[in-house]
Specification:
Largest sheet: none
Number of domains: 2
Helix content: over 70%
GO molecular function: citrate transmembrane transporter activity; succinate transmembrane transporter activity
Strand content: under 5%
Subcellular location: Membrane
Organism: Stegodyphus mimosarum (African social velvet spider)
Protein name: Solute carrier family 13 member 3
Number of strands: 0
Family: Belongs to the SLC13A/DASS transporter (TC 2.A.47) family. NADC subfamily.
C-alpha cells in the first residue's frame, strides 16, 4: 500500500475543516456565514490543496450562494481601478521575465559595478528577478572551472554574499514597496478604501504618493544597507585584481551570449517606460496631467 501524498492529506484536512465549520454556514446571521467563507479560504491559503488563484475566486460563487452579497456586487470588486492597475504591473513584470530582460539588466549591472561586494549589495534594491539573476551570475563566475579553481575563501565569500542578498531581498521588497502605489497590494487597497470612505478628499495619485513616501523609503533602504554592510561585509574583505578580472571576463562572456537587444526586449522596455510615465503624469498635481488634458 502506497503512503498517502502530502497533497492528499492537505485535501482531506481542508474537506474536514469545511464540514466541521458547516454550522456557521447554516447560521441565519450573515456575519457567521461570512466567517465560514473567511475561515475556509484561510485554510485553503495555508495548506494550498488547490492553486492560490482558485482559492482567490471562491468568493465569487460562495458569497452570493450564502446570500451575503449579490453576484454583481462581488464581481465588481474584482474589477476595480486599483486591481486593474495592480494586474497591469504584474503583466509587465511577467513580460520582463519572459523575454529575459531582467537577466540582461542584471549582467549589465554586474559589468558596471564589478565584483566588489559593496557595490553588488546596492543592486538588491532592484526587482526580485534581477536580484536572483545577480546571485546566479556571481555563483557561476566563482564556480567556473574553465577560468580558475575554486578557492575555499571564494566559497566562503559567496556564501556570505548569498546570505546578505537573501536578506536584502526581504528588506528591499518591504522598503521599496512603500515608494509607489503599485509597489505592493496594500497600498492600492488603502487608496481604494480612502476613495470610498472619504470621497470629498483629494485623490491620491501616483506622483503624490511618491512625493510623500519615496524620501522615507530611501532612508529605510539606506538603514538596511548599512546593517548588511556592518554584519556581512567586513572592512578587510577585499578581492584581488586578478579575481575581479576573471569574474568580469565570465560575466562579459555571458552578456555577449545574449546577443544584441531583440525587438521583444526593446518593446517590453519601451512599454514599461511608457507605463511608468503615464502612471506618474496622469495627475501629478504639480502640473496639468494628461488625464485632465484629454478630459478637456
Amino acid at each position: 500500500m502506497k503512503p498517502w501524498s502530502a497533497h492528499k492529506i492537505k485535501l482531506i484536512v481542508c474537506i474536514t475543516v469545511s464540514i466541521v465549520l458547516l454550522p456557521l454556514a447554516a447560521s441565519p446571521f450573515k456575519e457567521a456565514r461570512c466567517a465560514y467563507i473567511i475561515l475556509l479560504m484561510s485554510t485553503f491559503w495555508m495548506l494550498e490543496p488547490v492553486h492560490l488563484t482558485v482559492t482567490a475566486l471562491l468568493p465569487v460563487p460562495l458569497i452570493p450562494l450564502f446570500g451575503i452579497l449579490s453576484a454583481s456586487q462581488v464581481c465588481s470588486d474584482y474589477m476595480k481601478e486599483v486591481l486593474m492597475m495592480f494586474l497591469g504591473g504584474l503583466a509587465v513584470a511577467v513580460a520582463v521575465e519572459h523575454c529575459n530582460l531582467h537577466e540582461r539588466i542584471a549582467l549589465k549591472v554586474l559589468m558596471a559595478v564589478g565584483s566588489d561586494t559593496k557595490c553588488n549589495t546596492a543592486t538588491t534594491a532592484m526587482m526580485v528577478p534581477i536580484v536572483e539573476a545577480v546571485m546566479l551570475e556571481l555563483k557561476s563566475s566563482l564556480e567556473c572551472d574553465a577560468v580558475a579553481p575554486i578557492k575555499t575563501e571564494s566559497k566562503m565569500k559567496h556564501e556570505v554574499l548569498r546570505t546578505a542578498l537573501l536578506l536584502s531581498v526581504a528588506y528591499s521588497a518591504n522598503c521599496g514597496g512603500t515608494g509607489t502605489i503599485t509597489g505592493t497590494s496594500p497600498n492600492m487597497i488603502l487608496k481604494g478604501f480612502l476613495e470610498e470612505t472619504h470621497p470629498e478628499s483629494s485623490e491620491i495619485t501616483y506622483a503624490s504618493w511618491m512625493l510623500y513616501n519615496v524620501p522615507g523609503m530611501i532612508i529605510c533602504v539606506f538603514i538596511g544597507w548599512t546593517i548588511l554592510q556592518l554584519l556581512y561585509v567586513p572592512c578587510w574583505w577585499k578581492q584581488s585584481k586578478d579575481d575581479r578580472q576573471r569574474i568580469r571576463k565570465i560575466i562579459t562572456s555571458r552578456y555577449n551570449e545574449l546577443g544584441t537587444i531583440t525587438f521583444h526586449e526593446g518593446a517590453v522596455f519601451f512599454l514599461f517606460t511608457v507605463l511608468v510615465f503615464l502612471w506618474i503624469f496622469r495627475e501629478p498635481k504639480f502640473m496639468t496631467g494628461w488625464a485632465e488634458l484629454l478630459a478637456s
